[in-house]
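BUG: 3D viewer hangs when loading the predicted structure for this chain

Environment: internal workstation, default settings.
Expected: structure renders.
Actual: progress bar stalls at 90%.

Input used:
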Amino acid sequence: MTKKELPSLFSFPENSTKAESEAAKKLYSLLDKYLKSNHPVLLLLSGGTWIPALDKADISTLIANKNLNKLTITTLDERVGTDSESNYGKLFSSQNIVSLVKSGADIIKTSSTIGEPVDTFSTKINKALKNYLFNHSGAILVATAGVGGLGNVPGHIAGIEPMEDSNEFSSNFQNPELLYCGYIAKKLQPEPRATATFPLLDKVNDFILLILNPEQKRSSLELILSDNQENLNIAPCTYFHSRKNTFIYTDIPE
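Structure tokens produced before the viewer hung:
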């Protein structure tokens, strides 16, 4: 029997700043390593908890990487709205991300235009990602992620919300033709969403998860680590339970 892969867990109880900085260090060291191996790298960044964490580690080594122009940055999920509401817009509140782009990293834009329908919006991103992967067949994908907690749709990841209807869930998020899916959420806010799907998540080489706030997020972390797994449509975060190359940084005690 093949030994089950479990996520690598790094716990810094009651020290969210340390968890943020260690997660960011891991992210930038992975990017530097892959770029030094002369691979194109696609970085999929989540919003929320990860936005302030992006500036909690030094990127001078990464900036000096001679292959930095092989790095492309985009979002793991999006909201349909103005740049200030979008995860894409929020990325540029990070000085580190601004510095990477100024120093040669490319970017796939994922903000919407005013009044843009969610289907048109998600189709645009889906096409851009498919074009990228077609033109960079040897690309390595690295992604950051968080999980939803109490008061914020427990168990959700990226823009993938839990759904009682497994067929609807599969149609939205497990369609092999879609790397990015647009839909009207029932639980997440804002409701018009676009998100990476499981077929795209399956292409990711390394995930770095940042799960902060024990009172809010403990139940979601337990869902990931538990051997008694909920169905994916009920708790999308269980995707990471046996997902290799998943690194979890948290302030929740083990």
